[in-house]
Amino acid sequence: MSDIHERLQAIRARMATAATRSGRDPATVQLLAVSKTFPVEAIQEAVEGGQLLFGENKVQELLAKAPLLPAKLEWHLIGHLQSNKVRKILPVARCIHSIDSLDLARDVDRIAAELGLFPKVLIEVNLAAESTKHGFNAATLRSSLEALYALRRLEIQGLMCIPPFDPDPTKSRPHFIELRGLRDELEKLGGAPLPQLSMGMSHDFEIAIEEGATIVRVGSAIFGERKAKV
Ligand SMILES: *Cc1c(COP(=O)(O)O)cnc(C)c1O
Question: Who lines ligand 1 at CB under 6 A?
Answer without folding.
Answer: 34, 36, 57, 78-79, 162, 201-202, 217-221
